[in-house]
Amino acid sequence: MTEVSPVLRILPEVLLTLTGVLVMLLEPVIDIKASRKPLGFLAISGTLAAIAATGYQLQLPPGTAFFGSVQSDAFSAFFHFVICGIVLVTLLVSLDYFEGHTTYVGEYYALILFGAVGMMLMTSSVELLMIFISLEISSISTYILAGYRKRSATSPEASIKYFLLGSFATSFFLYGIALCFGATGSTNLFDIARGIASGASPLLLTVAFGMMLIGLGFKVSLAPFHVWTPDVYEGAPAPVVGLMSTAPKAAAFAVLLRICYGAYGTMTHLWMPLIWILAVLSMTIGNLGALTQRNVKRMLAYSSIAHAGYLLVAFTSLAALGIASAGFYTAAYAAMNVGAFAVLGYLSGFDEKRTNLIDYAGIARRHPVAAAALSVFLLSLIGIPFTAGFFGKFYVFTGALNSGNAWLAVLGLLNSGVAAFYYLRLLAQMYMLPAEPTLEPNTMRARPGFILGVAILVFAVFALGIFPNRTLSLARDAGATFTSHPNPVPQPQAEAIPQQ
User: Cα torsion for 234, 44, 111, 226, to the nearest 10°?
Assistant: First the structure.
């Protein structure tokens, strides 16, 4: 077998890094009054190249590089596609968002690309220290992006809150890595799995897993680690919220899947009850919190907490089925949530004056196409048939039922019924109520980048809802990597999963 160059194992990350550096180098030579759209197009080109490179990686045999710290396989490729897709659409809808409102927008495009590099490295890393470094690369970029509307009081506040709480949560993850090393003598996930199989200290491993779960739980907004989410989502620019509510979550869930099914694959009795509890807490707290919100961005922030709980339900399935359903739900959620925040950003404008429910009364009459697109995303978030959200929840709850976690599936369905109320309430505001007479009309015109980005997302929502097999097949291939690795880690059997 021909040896694969180590650079090819991280080719998408290399292309994004080079593009981000090029954007930063070109920014100073462009006149301060000139449009920064060419830099946006350059960033989009780099993202398309990264998507093509990910497709090329699928043709390579699975393997590791850089002393076993990163691994390219179907699992990493699947999440690379998801993250690159999110970045591509975010760049498209951002082309006109900052136009005329702020200078040096090139920094924005570069930060998105550098953040994507960290997220993609997280999904391909099989070394805990490499995961930590990648997590920091991703986090630093999103901390800055959250405060990019510098003249707004809420945006810098969101950035500072995100940074302080994020740094605190990251320390938990680092302490968990240290305890893992103390218990097994290694920070490589495969070596940790072998150490667990040989009888390493269960107490240290239990505490280590708990600390790492806290660190990752913050990134994916799991309850009770969600307190930052509503404030940060409310203050950050809408396109940034669409990005940070999906791409970092996809990367963090990929890491959690590798830890649970890879390193801790023989200790389901340890992590399964914790996952069960966090899933129920996230679904319930997220949906109940959203019911009381009158600010649309805060409502969708609590909604994202609930969806993190739905996604966590997939972890209770058997290894291959759980990874496949989690992967599919991640892709579905990315399409509908990025789309929802993209349309909110368009309707509310750069200054985001339209953020409350009452501001959307009768808006379908003034912006029928944008309202129709937002309706598609909201209906998908509910889980209406023929949308991505329907099959996402179907696979997640079916997996829970097949693994014997019927009560968890029932609680998930009940929470989905509760969620339908606040999504439909926003739809009723848009279509069934008259517009407020004092509301100033939004004069912002839809531009080609925004139209193309939203069109891609609407297409993805219906494609995943009507023809889900292709994406599900890729997700299944991703799940199979945990049993087809050259040094396979023992996988849990069906009877090892506790019955609820």
Answer: 40
> What are the backbone angles phi and psi of residue 52, rounded to the nearest 5°?
-65, -40
pLDDT at site 200: 67
Q: What are the domain boundaries of the chain? A: 7-496
CA–centroid distance for 321 within its chain: 20
Which pLDDT score, from 0 to 100, does residue 103 have? Answer: 63
Beta bridge partners of 188: 127
CB atoms within 10 A of CB 296: 25
Angle at 130 between CA 124 and CA 131, to 5 degrees: 65
Determine how many CB atoms are found less than 10 A away from the CB of residue 442: 17
pTM: 0.91
Please tell me the predicted confidence (pLDDT) of residue 109.
93
Helix axes 319-348, 388-402, angle to 10 degrees: 150
- Residue 57's alpha-carbon distances to 26, 423, 483, in angstroms, are 30, 39, 19
Which positions ≥6 away from 104 have C-beta within 8 Å?
Answer: 27, 36
Q: Distance (Å, rounded) from C-alpha 62 to C-alpha 72?
A: 6
Residue 22, both tokens = 């090029």
Residue 490 — very low, low, confident or very high, per pLDDT cuts 50/70/90? very low
Distance CA 260, CA 121 (A): 18
3-state secondary structure the chain: CCCCCHHHHCHHHHHHHHHHHHHHHHHHHCCCCCCCHHHHHHHHHHHHHHHHHHHHHCCCCCEEECCCCEEECHHHHHHHHHHHHHHHHHHHHHCCCCCCCCCCCHHHHHHHHHHHHHHHHHHHECEHHHHHHHHHHHHHHHHHHHCCCCCCCHHHHHHHHHHHHHHHHHHHHHHHHHHHHHHHCCCEHHHHHHHHHCCCCHHHHHHHHHHHHHHHHHHCCCCCCCCCHHHHHHHCCHHHHHHHCCHHHHHHHHHHHHHHHHHCCCCHHHHHHHHHHHHHHHHHHHHHHHHCCCEHHHHHHHHHHHHHHHHHHHHHCCHHHHHHHHHHHHHHHHHHHHHHHHHHHHHHCCCCCCCEHHHHCCHHHHCHHHHHHHHHHHHHHHCCCCCHHHHHHHHHHHHHHHCCCHHHHHHHHHHHHHHHHHHHHHHHHHHHCCCCCCCCCCCCCCCHHHHHHHHHHHHHHHHHHHCCHHHHHHHHHHHHHHHHCCCCCCCCCHHHCCCC
